[in-house]
Design goal:
135 residues, mainly beta, Metal Binding Protein, Guanine Nucleotide Exchange Factor, Chain A, 10 strands, globular, binds zinc ion
Length: 135
């Protein structure tokens, strides 16, 4: 397949990946804070299929005892989520150049789903173990 490509709002962080992503909605409180949005759409790929190709690299910070998140430190775009000990990484689907080509297949973190977030209501759904602990 063609490589998937994407990057941040300002263009400093750019990536390429050779794998087809597994895409889902995440309604968890962590993704909500990290994106500043009602929910995240995450595109998971094997970590070893991802290459950073822009002039900048995302800045990574620990977001919980089990996860790290990265963002562009020039424009603030959230870029990725990684759980410790896993060999895959989730790109925020909004950073994909062709986000339209990869529709979400399921929901996650549904215990925190906002009642008015009515995207993909007919999809299978499961909970998450990661929750925001407050400011
Ligand atoms: Zn940027
Ligand atoms: Zn989440």
């Amino acid at each position: 397949m063609e490589p998937i490509t994407g990057g941040c709002l300002c263009g400093r962080v750019r990536y390429e990946a050779s794998a087809r992503p597994r895409v889902h909605y995440c309604h968890c409180t962590m993704c909500r804070r990290a994106t500043g949005s009602a929910f995240a759409v995450l595109a998971w790929i094997p970590e070893n299929s991802l290459r950073w190709v822009g002039e900048g690299r995302p800045r990574e910070r620990r977001s919980s005892p089990i996860a790290r998140r990265s963002f562009c430190d020039r424009c603030g775009t959230p870029i990725s989520l990684s759980y410790d000990g896993r060999d895959e990484v989730a790109l925020h689907a909004g950073t994909l150049d062709r986000a339209d080509a990869f529709a979400p297949g399921y929901h996650y973190g549904v215990e925190s789903r906002l009642p008015w977030a009515d995207c993909g209501v007919v999809l299978p759904a499961g909970p998450t173990e990661e929750r925001w602990g407050g400011a």
